[in-house]
Amino acid sequence: MKQYEVTISGRVQGVGFRYFTKNQAKALNLVGWVRNTLDGSVLATVQGTKQAIDTFADHMWIGPPLSEVKSVTKVEMQLVEKYTDFEIRN
User: Fold this and answer.
1) How buried is 16 (Cβ within 10 angstroms: 0-12 exposed, 13-18 middle, 19+ buried)?
2) SS3 state of residue 7
3) Each residue's pLDDT expressed in tens, for the chain with a length of 90 residues
4) Is residue 15 within 8 Å of 64, Cβ to Cβ?
5) Which amino acids are annotated catalytic?
6) Which long-range contacts (CB under 8 A, 24 or more apart) does 51-56 make?
7) Distance separating alpha carbons of residues 90 and 62, to the nearest angstrom
8) Which of 31, 46, 47, 49 gets the most CB atoms within 10 Å of its CB?
9) Helix, coil or strand: residue 6
10) What b/e string do you get for 55-73 counting C-beta neighbours within 10 Å, with b at 16 or more?
């Protein structure tokens, strides 16, 4: 099990991006969370296989219809807490 922090920038708030992210994570059997950040980006922490997380990051480039993704960055993190589901945080 791996853990990555994924940051998505662009027009990603107010367009359903967190719900899109949750749906993609669930489809790939990933757990973790997603939230909006003060700088206008979306931040997700995901846990699962490296292959599933790579696919997840690729899907983040697509986003929901009204989004406009400018960048997707992922950084491997130390696994400290094991999540059991994927949630949207405020």
Assistant:
1) middle
2) strand
3) 999 999 999 999 999 999 999 999 999 999 999 999 999 999 999 999 999 999 999 999 999 999 999 999 999 999 999 999 999 998
4) yes
5) 18, 36
6) 52/28, 53/2, 53/4, 53/6, 53/28, 55/28, 56/6, 56/24, 56/25, 56/28, 56/30
7) 23
8) 46
9) strand
10) bbbebbeebeeebebeebe
Token pair of 73 as six digits: 């960055």
Bridge partners, 6 (sequence order)? 44, 74
**What tokens appear for 25 in the block?**
């994570």
Six-digit token string for 75: 């950084």
What pLDDT sits at residue 33? 98
pTM reported for the whole predicted model? 0.95
The structure tokens 């991006």 sit at 17
State the burial class of residue 7 (Cβ atoms within 10 Å of its Cβ: 0-12, 13-18, 19+).
middle
